[in-house]
């Protein structure tokens, strides 16, 4: 068992330099197999992940800041303590609000897929476009 105290999470978030877009501190993994991949994702103000899906689904727990998650054209605002569960293979994206960074825990299993920005799959899913400069991943 590994225990990560809240002050350690705060230190990990603070250690990410501004301007990284999206940064992941892997707490377990990434193995992209049957084992759990657990990461602390930090998104700069206004940054977003490119649309993607996870073979085994994804659990997101917001630990600081505010942001959003979007799937099937439906964008929902999230904040500290909110939990998001995306089912396996659901195309989605998530990002930080324009007024500050956001950090969240991510738990996944299996691999992931990230279609190209202009793919018919992204358009069919009704996801808003994410500008290339808004993310790093």
What is the C-alpha radius of gyration, as a whole number of Å?
A: 14 Å
CATH superfamily: Jelly Rolls
Query: How much helical structure, as a percent, in the residues?
Result: 10-25%
Helix count equals 2
Shape: globular
The top level CATH class name: Mainly Beta
Proportion in β-strands: 35-45%
Number of domains: 1
Label the structural class.
Answer: mainly beta
From the 3D coordinates, which CATH architecture would you assign? Sandwich
* CATH domain topology: Jelly Rolls
Descriptive overview:
11% of the residues lie in helices and 39% in strands. It is mainly beta and 137 residues long. The chain has one domain: Jelly Rolls (Sandwich), CATH 2.60.120. Strand 5 and strand 6 form a beta hairpin. It has 2 helices and 10 strands. The C terminus is likely disordered.
What is the secondary structure topology, with strand pairs?
Blueprint lengths: L5 H9 L7 E7 L7 E8 L9 E2 L3 E8 L1 E5 L2 E5 L4 E4 L6 E4 L5 E8 L2 E2 L6 H6 L12
Antiparallel strand pairs: 1-2, 2-9, 3-10, 4-7, 4-9, 5-6, 5-8
Which descriptors would you attach to this protein?
disordered C terminus, 5-stranded antiparallel beta sheet, 10 strands, mainly beta, Jelly Rolls, 137 residues
